[in-house]
Amino acid sequence: MNLKKWMPLLAISSACFWMTQAQAQDYPNKPITMVMPYAAGGPGDTITRLFAGSMQKILGQQIVVDNTAGAAGSIGTAKVARSKPDGYTLLMIHVSHATNLAMYKNLSYHPVDDFEPIGSATSGPMVIVARNEFPPKDLNEFVSYLKTNQKKVSLAHAGVGSASHLCGLMMMNVLGVQLNEIPYKGTGPALTDLMGGQVDVLCDQTSGTVPSVKNGKIKAYASAGKNRLPSLPNTPAIAEAGVKGFEINISFGLYAPKGTPKPVLDKLTAALQKSVTDAEVINRLDGMGVAAVSVEQATPNALRAHLKNEIETLGGLLIKAGVQPN
């Protein structure tokens, strides 16, 4: 082997390695940007700002939230994918990171291949709610009513591919019904029309539905899972009506661009794990009907497995429903 030939390359490789290590040890030494690919003021924005505030205290550097919204989160996500992999541009995103593969033909990034998972942050089951005047009195009557009146029932959602759309698709798939879908440009308008009685049913995240239920503006029939929600203890889980296979949780996870040095990722994961046990974070999330994940879920491996599962299951729902990618 001609060592003289390879020595310059070895020297360059070694220099790059030690430079990366030095940068990682010094990390972070300037403000970090956490991209939230949805509009300001929504539940995702609130969750992102909550974790940004907690993590910046742990890391000792300011974390600025950047709302780069549009195209079901794909514009902000692409922005992070193209960013320098140095730990100073991060992405906080939920289910759209998985479903956009089925939503867009020429997505400029791959959710698995172009990102480094840092860890999950929150998890919250969906809630099936309806206008106050909707006839069924309880969950069992609700299931029966949908089956016998499906052509008359309107199902609101926040747009094709949204969390509420996915929840509605899963509900119709499991119950074997086809309701009249009414798409909106976001959860806010859908919830407003539900409270006003213009639409019948909505299946959405706890952050928006739970406060409205507690204020008596809408009524809840079930949580979309096996267990009741602590924030709505008198509302049954849909499994209590004998409905199987209907379980959907909306989780937010934190990512960095592919190639971010492992020592930097380790620091970010450690900060995230401290944040999910932060009492202030837990209390604020509880008020939204959302839970911080366990320390074990706030890891790269757990988030990677969760993402791959959502690509398969929820992306599959969109394909089965005949949603055509843009």
Distance between the termini: 53 Å
Helix content: 40-55%
The sequence of SSEs as H and E is HEHEHEHEHEHEHEHEEHHEH
Largest sheet: 10 strands, mixed
* Outline type: globular
What is the average of the pLDDT values?
A: 91
Radius of gyration based on Cα positions: 22 Å
Number of strands: 10
Helical region count? 11
Uncertain runs = none
Relative strand content: 15-25%
Structural class: alpha/beta
Describe it for me?
- By secondary structure, this protein is of the alpha/beta class.
- The chain is 44% helix and 18% strand.
- It has eleven helices and ten strands.
- Strands 1, 2, 3, 4, 5, 6, 7, 8, 9 and 10 form a ten-stranded mixed beta sheet that branches.
- α2 links the parallel β1 and β2.
- The model has no long low-confidence stretch (mean pLDDT 91).
Which features characterize this protein?
alpha/beta, 44% helix, 10-stranded mixed beta sheet, 18% strand, 326 residues, 11 helices, globular
Question: How is the topology of this model organized?
Answer:
Layout: H1 3-26, E1 32-36, H2 43-59, E2 63-67, H3 74-81, E3 89-93, H4 96-103, E4 115-130, H5 139-149, E5 154-157, H6 163-175, E6 180-183, H7 187-195, E7 201-205, H8 206-214, E8 219-223, E9 249-257, H9 262-275, H10 279-287, E10 291-292, H11 300-320
Parallel strand pairs: 1-2, 1-3, 5-6, 5-7
Antiparallel strand pairs: 3-9, 4-7, 4-8, 4-9, 4-10
Helix pairs in contact: 2-9, 4-11
